């Protein structure tokens, strides 16, 4: 399988197209976490919605007000971060 390129296109903080998405891990109207070709990606904001379903090249469209885009190098990074915050 050919490795997908990761590409992010943000338009007016209201529409984000993400390429190279392998899996959407979780989402609600404030946070979307996905596993991409280069690791985890977390999108934070308000009224977030996952629009277009995965296309053949792994592209996802997100709409809403986008406040943050956070990259993590490993798939377990968010779980580790969450657990470490609980035990502080």
UniProtKB/TrEMBL annotation:
- InterPro entries, alphabetically? Spore_YabP/YqfC (IPR022476), YabP_sf (IPR038705)
Name its species. [Eubacterium] siraeum
Q: What domain of life does the native source organism fall in?
A: Bacteria
Q: What is this protein called?
A: YabP/YqfC family sporulation protein
Q: One Pfam family from the UniProt entry?
A: YabP
């Amino acid at each position: 399988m050919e490795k997908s390129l990761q590409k992010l296109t943000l338009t007016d903080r209201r529409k984000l197209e993400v390429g190279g998405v392998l899996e959407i891990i979780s989402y609600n109207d404030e946070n979307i976490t996905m596993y991409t070709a280069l690791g985890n990606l977390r999108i934070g904001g308000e009224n977030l919605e996952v629009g277009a379903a995965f296309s053949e090249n792994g592209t996802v469209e997100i709409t809403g007000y986008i406040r943050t885009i956070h990259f993590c190098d490993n798939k377990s990074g968010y779980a580790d971060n969450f657990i470490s915050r609980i035990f502080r």
